[in-house]
Amino acid sequence: MNVVLFCGVSVQRHHFHPPMGGQPSVPPPPPSPLFDDPWMNVSWGDNNRDLHYVDSFRPVNDEVRHIRVLLYGPVGAGKSSFITSVSNALRRRMTCEALASAANSSGQSFSKKYLTHRIRKGGKGNYYCLVLNDTMGLEEGYGRGIHTHDIKLAMMGHVKEGYKFNPLAPLSNGDPDYNSSPSLNDRVHVMVCVHNANAPEMKSSILLKLREIREAASRKGVPQLAVLTNVDEACIDTKTSLRNVYRSKYLKKKISEFSSSFGIPINCILPVKNYSHEIQTCSDVDTLILRAVRLIDLGHDFTNKVLR
Ligand SMILES: Nc1nc2c(ncn2[C@@H]2O[C@H](COP(=O)(O)OP(=O)(O)OP(=O)(O)O)[C@@H](O)[C@H]2O)c(=O)[nH]1
Ligand SMILES: *[C@@H]1O[C@H](CO)[C@@H](O)[C@H](O)[C@H]1NC(C)=O
Ligand SMILES: *[C@@H]1O[C@H](CO)[C@@H](O)[C@H](O)[C@H]1NC(C)=O
Ligand SMILES: *[C@@H]1O[C@H](CO)[C@@H](O)[C@H](O)[C@H]1NC(C)=O
Ligand SMILES: *[C@@H]1O[C@H](CO)[C@@H](O)[C@H](O)[C@H]1NC(C)=O
Ligand SMILES: [Mg+2]
């Protein structure tokens, strides 16, 4: 008998020895760790539509130059990695095109020109009308990690660029880094809570901080999403293929638990794996990351609603 770990559920496998002369008895198969049908349909590897969408997106509201997304969550949840992944997935658009054109010698020079133009335009970081703001991680207890008050101030656009978060004292009106009259462009248009799928059960003090931030965002009508990182390491099925993300029973349970403890609908939780260094053209990793383009739509709706 050996024990195989399937998504945290131990499944006992018996080696049956057929009785002499008799028919081998067939043991009931262990329950599958995967759903037959995914609970969310994803167009795996088909990223061009999303890439084009982010590429050509411009806010309608003149007051807004870009949709600002603020990431918050526990220390080490993967906030910074997520930002790198989004930026890589978007910039890889160039890589994908470059690879495609290199393979087609007749189309090469045309593609190169297009490529240069795109890189120049995007080089300063103002190309995509989406900015992601990273924050310091939330920690257990008082006076450690980022102050929840600072996250709420940043949400309302009161925190100036380059401010160094201080766990002991939140920013206050009158400080040089305090923007007392933020524009709609300074404000955050989508709040994203980042959580590691494999983290041990969240400490209640951290959960309280997360909820406090979420409730502040709800009061101000700011749209919210959550990003569940490290799904590649969550279970053997997602490790084998990311395409099992919406088929894994274990991950579905994880997402449901996070949904009820944090108080955010299941369909607002985006499972992701961070970008790895390998050059794989337009991969499944990007497919999950690019579902984050929903950030733009949510933020866009918000910036239009606030104006009216
Ligand atoms: N396997 C795997 N590792 C990840 C993933 N996302 C992040 N990591 C790793 O997790 C660690 C923490 O990630 P960070 O992005 O630094 O986390 P953070 O939320 O910015 O952390 P703080 O800034 O300290 O609050 C790093 O070693 C990452 O390489 C993922 O999706 N899969
Ligand atoms: C996914 O697509 C299939 C085939 O189009 C459909 O039968 C199924 O209901 C869809 N699932 C969800 C969750 O939308
Ligand atoms: C993603 O996670 C891996 C560990 O699995 C790490 O080595 C790598 O640096 C991370 N990538 C980014 C872009 O943070
Ligand atoms: C290669 O480039 C030519 C000229 O631009 C184009 O007509 C053709 O469709 C391309 N082939 C492929 C496989 O992309
Ligand atoms: C938010 O992100 C933008 C773009 O990455 C950066 O320039 C800016 O300094 C950030 N602002 C804050 C308050 O962190
Ligand atoms: Mg970080």
UniProtKB/TrEMBL annotation:
InterPro entries given in the database record: P-loop_NTPase
Highest taxon listed in the record's lineage: Eukaryota
GO biological process assignments: immune response
SUPFAM superfamilies given in the database record: P-loop containing nucleoside triphosphate hydrolases
Gene3D superfamilies (alphabetical): P-loop containing nucleotide triphosphate hydrolases (3.40.50.300)
PANTHER family: INTERFERON-INDUCED PROTEIN 44 (PTHR14241), INTERFERON-INDUCED PROTEIN 44-RELATED (PTHR14241:SF1)
The name this protein goes by in its record: G domain-containing protein
